[in-house]
Amino acid sequence: MISVKEAKDLISQHIIALNPISIDLAKASGHILAADVYAKYDIPAFSQSSMDGYAIKFADHEQELTLIGEMAAGTATTITIRNGQTSRIFTGAPLPEGADTVVMQEKIARRDGKITLQAPNLKLGLNVRDKGSEIMAGALAMEKGNLLSPAAIGFLAGIGINKVSVYPMPKISIIVTGKELQQPGKTLEFGQVYESNSYSLSAALKHEGIEQILVYEADDDLEILKKVLQTAIESSDVVLLTGGVSVGDYDFVIEAAAHCGIKQIFHKVKQKPGKPLFFGTKDQKLIFGLPGNPSSVLSCYYNYVLPSIKALSHKSNSVIEVQAKLTHSYSKAAGLTHFLKGKYENGLVTPLSAQESYRLSSFAQANCLICLDETQEHFKKSDILTVMILPN
């Protein structure tokens, strides 16, 4: 067996980011930009008013002005302001030729077609958005490596971009093994358990923006598993198997992986839960053999699978490590790193009950995993421990 650190290091050494793709901007939210984006136009493309009011020549602001027309947003023609003249103007409308300042509509007096300004603090250029003030044509709008957040999507749309080069989200296949599994909603017969691993994994993946998820079922049969695994490899960037990675008579994942040409990188990690974890690769694709117990599945997912999926798309890991004080003492045997379901709040962390690998009730309440070093047996109240904050 290898250590947790060794396992994580080996996985990171075998991750090759997915090749960039060009997609519509409307579908790019949450992706990482794979190429610099440059502005094609001056934005705004013309000087425009930032509010409803009156467009003037600043030099005329102390005299009575003649109203000659109006400019509305979206107008395709312009008018010219000459000395002693003003034009009604609305937010977003182009500034008339000759005008350089906009006076708020609340700061004027109007009588007999004449306008008198009541704006003693008026300044040249006030309430005017200059041409190119957002960005100039040819300027760098957004650098490669930026996350396309909602604001970033809006900014790029606002400067006329409709397609971007991004690192794609990986395609994921989940293979659930075990003839004892029954689908939720159906009657549970003697010897059966409800299948939950595909539900928890799919939910966790969707939470990270992964949309292309395929779920397969495979009985504890070597030939069936080989066929299903081969199909999953061909259609996915990452394959997650649950169950069948131990050494029982009906555990066929390791043998099936070898038959499908998967290169084994490691099998078994010094950790609890999730000791039988398998990791292999084929043609730059990642294959994880996760234990069958539900708590083990999620523990391995947050420790190994999620960081790998993020790296494929050039994203940062969404599991954040912090240091926290233990609220009460805890003991374990030496030799394995333990990941305890816990509750983290205000710098304090509390292990929850129901830590057994088959139980998800504690995981359903947890917001973190508490990392207990493999060499240490006893942990005292107020000890500072590493805590993995889970995505919420």
Describe the structure.
With 392 residues, the protein is of the alpha+beta class. It has four domains: 4-19 and 169-312, Molybdenum Cofactor Biosythetic Enzyme, Chain A (3-Layer(aba) Sandwich); 26-40 and 137-167, Molybdopterin biosynthesis moea protein, domain 2; 48-129, Molybdopterin biosynthesis moea protein, domain 3 (Molybdopterin biosynthesis moeA protein, domain 3); 320-387, MoeA, C-terminal, domain IV (Beta-clip). It is 19% helix and 31% strand. The protein is built from seven helices and 29 strands. The protein has helices at residues 4-13, 150-158, 197-207, 222-235, 253-259, 294-312, 361-365; strands at residues 21-24, 32-33, 37-38, 48-49, 53-56, 65-71, 85-89, 101-104, 108-111, 114-117, 128-129, 140-142, 163-167, 172-177, 181-182, 193-194, 213-218, 238-242, 263-267, 271-272, 278-282, 285-290, 320-326, 330-331, 337-345, 348-351, 368-372, 378-379, 384-389. The protein has a six-stranded mixed sheet, with no helix packed on it. Strands 17-14-18-22-21-19 form a six-stranded mixed sheet, with helices on both faces. The chain has a five-stranded mixed beta barrel with strand order 23-26-25-27-29. A hairpin with a 2-residue loop joins strand 9 (108-111) and strand 10 (114-117). Helix 1 (4-13) runs parallel beside helix 6 (294-312) and helix 3 (197-207) runs parallel beside helix 6 (294-312). The longest helix has 19 residues, at 294-312. The protein is elongated. The two termini are 32 Å apart. The model has no long low-confidence stretch (mean pLDDT 95).
